[in-house]
Structure to design on (372 residues):
């Protein structure tokens, strides 16, 4: 990979420092609150959540700050104390059978903690969570069901299935690996289209396992491309390829990346849906852009084609520069988040043009990946 220019490196380092300041302010103002999105720029715990999937992102930010502070420093001790304080309450979620989001909850929190310490208790928590997630598998249809119903498969689950691959690898349980493989192949077949765009949800006949149709909750239409779903798919299939080394998963991640690159506007920041109607076509989702940047920085190291690898790396840098130049909340002293212009759920009117906690997380993760 080519190196960042000094100016760009400085810009990204300053954004990383700004992120630390904003997170510190949040935890001082609202101790042990796990917010999803801001309301007029202010973190709020009272906004409707739709589903309970976001509690790992805040401790995940803290674990990144631990890793990037000087060994033995007071700063490192501060972040480690906070990260543990925000991670420990999540342990009980390893048994949560109501959501499909255990990867979001545990890769961000306990996985990062385990990577720093190697503590076998943390590994066991990750394995338990992976086993719980695998219990969502539907033999008829060959997918992990979403939180909304037995007949429903979400593209978002691609960000979580890696936890089953992890549990399979660490325990040697071939049944777990088989579930993760089958789910990923089904998702590829029914939710990723020939042009690399994605649908958010697939509906099955639970009696026969027959796939019936594509639809959406958070996108514009069943046949449109909700940009965050595309980003989850790009990143999720990249993670699956890292675990399974099945070239189909690499090709799928590349197809999603290529769709994003060829359809995003010149600044690289996707609209909330690539087929959004005229009335809100210009509404961006900076969280989709941040997830894409972070996913591309992983994918660029896996693709065997050096030209593609370079394209993915430079696109990620371009997206991050646009986010820093146009969407960083630095210029608005009262704004409590890091990145403006995120979107949670346009159709329900939740968290629209706000800071969203997963956008903060993947933005900082992408900065970390290019800076170190
Ligand atoms: N449903 C997870 C998301 O909002 O992306």
């Amino acid at each position: 990979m080519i190196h960042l220019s000094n100016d760009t490196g400085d810009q990204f380092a300053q954004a990383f420092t700004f992120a630390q300041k904003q997170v510190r302010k949040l935890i001082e103002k609202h101790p042990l609150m796990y917010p999803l999105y801001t309301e007029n720029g202010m973190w709020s715990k009272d906004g409707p959540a739709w589903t309970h999937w976001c509690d790992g992102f805040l401790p995940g930010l803290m674990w990144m700050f631990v890793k990037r502070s000087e060994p033995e420093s007071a700063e490192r001790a501060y972040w480690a104390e906070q990260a543990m304080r925000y991670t420990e309450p999540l342990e009980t979620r390893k048994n949560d059978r109501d959501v499909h989001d255990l990867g979001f909850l545990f890769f961000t929190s306990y996985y990062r903690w385990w990577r720093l310490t190697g503590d076998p208790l943390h590994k066991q928590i990750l394995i338990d969570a992976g086993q719980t997630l695998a219990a969502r598998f539907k033999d008829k249809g060959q997918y992990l069901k979403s939180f909304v119903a037995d007949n429903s498969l979400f593209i978002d689950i691609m960000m979580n299935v890696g936890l089953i691959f992890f549990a399979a690898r660490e325990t040697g349980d071939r049944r777990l690996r088989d579930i993760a493989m089958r789910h990923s192949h089904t998702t590829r077949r029914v939710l990723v289209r020939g042009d690399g765009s994605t649908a958010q949800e697939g509906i099955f006949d639970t009696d026969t396992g027959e796939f019936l149709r594509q639809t959406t909750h958070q996108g514009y239409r069943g046949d449109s491309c909700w940009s965050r779903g595309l980003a989850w798919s790009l990143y999720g299939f990249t993670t699956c390829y890292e675990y399974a080394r099945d070239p189909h998963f690499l090709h799928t991640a590349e197809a999603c990346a290529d769709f994003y690159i060829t359809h995003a506007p010149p600044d690289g920041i996707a609209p909330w849906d690539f087929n959004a109607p005229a009335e809100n076509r210009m509404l961006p989702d900076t969280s989709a852009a941040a997830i894409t940047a972070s996913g591309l920085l992983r994918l660029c190291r896996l693709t065997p084609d050096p030209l593609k690898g370079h394209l993915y790396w430079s696109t990620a840098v371009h997206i991050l520069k646009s986010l820093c130049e146009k969407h960083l909340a630095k210029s608005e002293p009262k704004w409590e988040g890091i990145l403006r212009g995120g979107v949670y759920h346009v159709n329900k009117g939740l968290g629209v043009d706000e800071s969203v906690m997963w956008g903060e997380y993947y933005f900082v993760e992408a900065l970390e990946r290019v800076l170190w």
